Amino acid sequence: MTCSGSASPRLTSASERTVHRHVAKIFTKLDVDSRTMAVTYAIKHRLIEVGML
Question: So what's the pLDDT on residue 1?
């Protein structure tokens, strides 16, 4: 859901609060403050390729 940018509650059974909590935990583990920084981290660490976006 995060990767595709979809935020529609109809596409997931998780509440918005749950999604925000999970994203915050990921940010903490990656030591980043935003989705942009998380994507930058993923590119630098070769977790994703620019063409995948």
Answer: 45
Read off the pTM.
Answer: 0.64
Structural contact between residues 6 and 39, judged by C-beta atoms closer than 8 angstroms: no
State how far the Cα of 26 lies from the Cα of 33, in Å rounded to an integer: 10
Domain borders along the chain are 9-52
Q: pLDDT (tens digit, 9 = 90+) per residue, 23-32?
A: 999 999 999 9
Tokens linked to 30: 């990656």
Determine the Cα–Cα distance for residues 14 and 50; give it in Å rounded to an integer: 28
Those residues whose C-beta lies under 8 Å from the C-beta of residue 32, and which sit 6 or more positions away, are 38, 40, 41
